[in-house]
Amino acid sequence: MSITPLIPVILCGGTGTRLWPLSRASYPKQYWALSGSSEQTLLQQTQQRLKGLRGLSEPLLICHEDHRFIVAEQMRQISVEPSSILLEPIGRNTAPAVALATLQATEQGEDPLLLVLAADHLIRNVEEFLRVIEAGRSYAEEGRLVTFGIVPTSPETGYGYIEAKECLDNKNPHGVEIERFVEKPNKHSAEKFLKDGRFTWNSGMFLFKASAMLSELERLAPEVVSSCRAALEQDVPDLDFLRIEREAFAKCPNIAIDVAVMEKTKLGTVLPLNAGWSDVGSWSALWETGDKDQDGNVLRGRVISEGSKNCYLRSEHRLVVGLGVKDLVVVETDDAVLIANREEAQNVKTIVKQLEVDGSPEAKAHRKIYRPWGNYTSVVEGSRWQVKKIEVKPGASLSLQMHHHRAEHWVVVKGTALVEQDGNKQLIGENQSTYIPLGCKHRLTNPGRMPVELIEVQSGAYLGEDDIVRFEDRYGRIAKMLTN
Description:
The protein is an alpha/beta fold. The protein is built from eleven helices and 30 strands. 40% of the residues are buried.
């Protein structure tokens, strides 16, 4: 008997503001390596832990268009070629994302199983995770809409709950019909749920046949399906991506799949999952799930701890020293440092909101910005000048462009760059430089097999990133005023 193909649908949305200053809109938590000693990002771990599932197909990923090259690069790093990367022009919650996935998966008349996963979850017991997913397959094959409820370990008020119609067997998981979904409860209710064997945390993970979910979406949330179908009919291929048409997608209701379908359907089935799950929602959660030293500290990066206890200390650049401190979260990045009591760390989102109100750049972006050709880091700046460190990947190229208000000096410090200026091309090697005058049509390409690194000094009356006129671009950005 043939196995029905199983397509992972990985939802890469969200900004993870409670993990500021590391997680920001320009580079959210799902693209960082946050768990234990693993160097893989949460997104990469989400894909890699699926190895061993029967009928596993290449994943379908859904992300914001601003993160498309981050997603593609992280998949390339683990040698995974997605079946599709759908680009949402705006966020519209999980129901539209699931609708897009079901429409895309059934486009050629096929009817695979879809395993919907968030890109930012941590699973410590992968073997148990796979066992429960496989246990859910038979229910999904029968047309049930399967979700996986996390066996609660505390009276958590920050999660929604799922009530099953009968007690769940955590050791030998089998599917039980869903009675209801419960929004985030108060402390008293959460304590009752913890003692009742019918309640689990709502993980947001689902397994179903594409046709079964699509049928329920059409019945219970027809506006979602019609908007998504219209957006897909007008989609635009963009390199390895599928760009969803903005105007049609903007008409789609902003609604979660739980609210749109799972709370109303009669097809809901829940299986208990007890596999060391965490949604990595705060710094205190990372401390709880992290590998601790003998004093209860989680240490990441260039960190020295002396006499400190029960702390989360993380350095991305500079040396961080914890001396005789207790119950703290300290996170250092290149442009911000967070110091918080561990019990108050989840409130960092209020700080982010204040930064946004103040217009502070630290609210949304890091100094290091990723682009399809590589990345750049803002080093230092003045009123009429700034310095950047630029890294260009092998074979990659900046757009052919021109600036109205600034000139640039490029100094190559690693590798060899091919520089084009007003039609003239020359190779610039290490310790060599070139000057790009204001108004000059120019481009930089890395023709080699190693990354090219250069220092860029900009000077002029206006240094904004919108001072770019593009003439050619291999990444389809002519109509979008993105940097370089």
